[in-house]
Amino acid sequence: xxxxxxxxxxxxxxxxxxxxxxxxxxxxxxxxxxxxxxxxxxxxxxxxxxxxxxxxxxxxxxxxxxxxxxxxxxxxxxxxxxxxxxxxxxxxxxxxxxxxxxxxxxxxxxxx
Length: 112
What we know:
By secondary structure, this protein is mostly beta strands. The chain is 0% helix and 49% strand. A six-stranded mixed beta sheet has the order 2-10-9-4-5-6, with no helix packed on it. Strands 1-3-8-7 form a four-stranded antiparallel beta sheet, with no helix packed on it. A hairpin with a 5-residue loop joins strand 5 and strand 6. The termini are far apart.
C-alpha cells in the first residue's frame, strides 16, 4: 500500500511558477510509474504528466514546454515544476500511480 501526500499548491499570478511535491510512503516508490493529474471546477480529471521508473516523462499537450515532471527515488518524492502558468491551469492537482491504484489528496493551484 502506498500513501501519497502532495504539497506546494497555492495562488499565483499568470506567468508565475509553482513547484508541487508528492511524498510517497509505505512501499518502494522507485517501483512505480507515477503521474500528475488535475481537475478543474466542472471539468473531468485529466492527465498532466507521467514519469516512468527510469525517469522518462510524457506530457499533455496543454502543458508541454511549461511543466516538468521529475522524481527523486532516494527521497521517495515526485515533483511537478510549473512555469508560465495560465489561468486555465487552475485546478486541484493530484499525484497518483499511473495505474491509478493510489492517489494523493490533492493540492489546489489557483492562477489569476
